[in-house]
Design a protein that fits this description.
Elements (H helix, E strand, L loop, with lengths): L4 E2 L13 H10 L4 E7 L14 H14 L5 E9 L12 E5 L2 E4 L2 E4 L4 H10 L4 H19 L3 E2 L20 H16 L3 E5 L1 H4 L13 H6 L4 E4 L12 H10 L4 E6 L2 E6 L2
Parallel strand pairs: 1-2, 2-3, 3-4, 7-8, 8-9
Antiparallel strand pairs: 5-6, 10-11
Helix pairs in contact: 4-5
Bound molecules: zinc ion (2 copies).
């Protein structure tokens, strides 16, 4: 494993199964040199089961662990900020990573990654038009890029989470591809790093990583910057997908990725 930095991880302060300390100990065991927790930010208008309730305690705990394990690993206090997050003060965080998890139709929030049932309801809210739904999703991704110029864009095609077998919409259709390519193009133009994420596979929800492998050739040709993220919610899967991810990217012609190392984004060779 060439990549020894992992900055997309969840713990008991949001929807993860383990405490930050358990996650860090597991990261040390797995050989990581740089490890960040990235709890979910609070979302506007709704109490969610997956977002963080007590940011001050979270920051305090990560700060304590940073110094406790300083001789073994560099620990970072990060935040996964959702497009619909409350306006916020980002003081005290080492880095932010950004995501779109929800679509809003007639004032109702639908998590595109919540469950097949919710996705089914979302399809109905779009009159059964999966392409319209996806266009709406990628418009929000572009709006996020426009407004925030994020360092890292997480799981860019999260809207495909329940679409294995193209159950809801055909990902080879030019309407779908037009929407996703337009969002990827804009991310590249903004110099935002695009995350390659195996998290849904670790949780048994999906068979392929984000972004879908058929997008990797496009990303390589356009010179996109990629970062491997675990989106880990359980210490037993701390490095899940890292070896496979390195192989996958090498096979698609990438010789390096980007990672957060020693407090900054740096290039990491994977050959
Ligand atoms: Zn996420
Ligand atoms: Zn996440």
């Amino acid at each position: 494993m060439k990549i020894k930095s992992s900055i997309h991880n969840h713990c008991t302060f949001c929807d993860g199964a383990n405490t930050p300390e358990e996650m860090i100990l597991s990261a040390i065991d797995a050989g990581f040199t740089d490890f960040g927790l990235s709890s979910h930010s609070m979302i506007e208008c709704m109490e969610t089961c997956w977002s963080m309730k007590d940011e001050e305690s979270y920051k305090k705990e990560i700060f304590r662990l940073k110094s406790k394990y300083a001789d073994k690993i560099r620990v970072y206090c990060g935040l996964e900020v959702d497009y619909h997050s409350l306006p916020r003060d980002n003081a005290g965080y080492d880095y932010l990573i950004d995501s779109v998890h929800n679509l809003v139709v007639d004032g109702r929030y639908y998590g595109v990654d919540h469950s097949v049932e919710v996705f089914d309801e979302l399809m109905r809210a779009f009159g059964g038009d999966g392409f319209k739904l996806c266009e709406n999703y990628y418009d929000l991704v572009k709006d996020l890029l426009y407004k925030k110029n994020p360092m890292v864009l997480c799981h860019v095609d999260l809207v495909t989470k329940f679409n294995d077998g193209y159950k809801f919409f055909d990902e080879s259709d030019k309407r779908y591809l037009g929407a996703v390519f337009s969002a990827l193009d804009y991310a590249i133009e903004k110099d935002t790093i695009i995350e390659v994420n195996y998290g849904a596979i670790a949780r048994g929800c999906k068979k392929t990583p984000y972004p879908a492998a058929y997008l990797l050739g496009f990303l390589r040709d356009k010179g996109a910057k990629l970062l491997l993220g675990a989106d880990c919610h359980n210490k037993n899967y701390i490095s899940f997908g890292f070896r496979e991810g390195e192989e996958l990217l090498k096979n698609h012609g990438f010789d390096h990725v980007y990672g957060y190392v020693d407090g900054a984004i740096r290039e990491i060779g994977i050959k």
